[in-house]
User: What shape does this take?
Amino acid sequence: MSAPAPSLRKSPMPSAVFVESVDPSTGEGVARFEAVQVSTIPGVFSRAREAQSSWAARSLPERCELLRRFQAELFDRREEVAEVICRETGKPRAEAIFAEIMFSLDTASFLVRNSRRFLKPQRVPHHNWALKSKRGRLYYEPLGVVALITPWNYPFAIPVGQVLPALAAGNAVLLKPSELTPWTGALVAELAERAGAPSGLVQVLQGGGEVTAAIIDARPDKVFFTGSVETGRKVAEACARNLIPSVLELGGKDAMIVLADANIDKASSAAIWGGFTNCGQACLSVERVYVEEAVAERFISLCVEKTKNLRVGSNADSEIDIGPMIRNKEIERVEAQLLDATSHGAKILIGGCRMPEKGPNFFAPTIITSVDHTMRLMREETFGPVVAIQTVAGADEAVRLANDSEFGLSASVWTRNAKRGREIASRLRVGSVMVNDVASYYSITEAPHGGCGASGWGRVHSRLGLLEMTNVKYIDEELLPHFAKPWWYGYRDGVAQAADRFTEMLFAPDRKRRWKALASDPRSLRPLIKKSGASKSPQTGTGSK
Assistant: This one.
């Protein structure tokens, strides 16, 4: 099925600004969308808040029914959606289906099955005997209006992975897609509308950085941002000024540790897929490989050989492995890192150059060795089809180098010894580690995604990601409301001494001292008992005579 491109044939108003969707394989425009005018954003928020108020009042099963219909709409239109993704990003069709369509369908299924269990009120037991007259519960309430600022590299899966839990939790959504992939972003809202989302509940705001700034200035109830560290810092600063909570996913510099006992054939295949999927433009890309010297030569040889067999080209060919990079600016960053590395002794074994015969934004998949941490290539996020391999003496050195990064998103460990793999994984300072696989945990809807350090904070996906869309409220109920509390005012008649004796009964460091306090003269606790029983009506709630 061919998706019709949005067109604007009428002459636009002079003040109108448009966002153009460009096919990175050819450099040609494929669609145009009118950018939202910043002055209209307060009105957008008003519509969102009105829609959210009635949406939050609906039952959770009703909200999940919308997700189920979204899933059905996506399934029926999956070919069209995949085509739009491919035209805007240049990625192979197989990757659009695996990483975007299948993930989004599964996200809907996961939330429909589990939202009621995750969001139901939760009893909070009280362990302290002094507070046993209370009963507490946690309630997971909607935040209100959440703003999602999403990137171009996975322009469908990332917003869907946040829109659906936001709706399940009872929120309204303002989605600001990347200006490089406006068509895919528009499709998310269109599918939600076709699924029956009330007017104003899911709105797409097209535009650039000025729109992002205006959205935050309008004070949404939470901001979810996925993108670069540089932009993430600006988003975090703007949110902090307005005391808006945020979740930031800012990319990574993922390390792969290959031990001598690993299956080297499988590990090398994983390295080139993990490094080159989506043309290396993924936050979970394998960008650094640390391989033990006993198997380094064979591992590197296999990586080079397998890279030679990859098919690079336009997604018009359904059998290509790697498409173009998104824009020339991204290629220039990769070239600058490679130039810095080679000037300091690194060796490019394959690739490392543009492929103009393929189109304007193609870059050859690259294997580079003899690297070290003095090079930008090993410190900065590359976000391109480059796998840098460094030989290490052993696992300890590999762990040290893997942790020598400001990023902390994900990593992988390769070994035939599962126990050793888990032990090494526990020493890595990242948000997730895969043992004998790379990156694919992202498609596991039960697995949380997020990192630490320059990779950001907060989590998406899983139960934790759903709870990020809620305000966690604790409600406590007093089961003996007619009795005054010992800690209320009236600090005389030995109350402090009685409180200290009671504290010793509860918290003395050894059992003997606790029993001694319990068995001592019970009259020492009389001031507390007397206060509790002194008031049986609100008029004498202090418990003092």
Observations:
- The chain has 17 helices and 20 strands.
- The first helix runs from residue 41 to 56.
- Confidence is low (pLDDT under 50) at residues 8-14, 535-545.
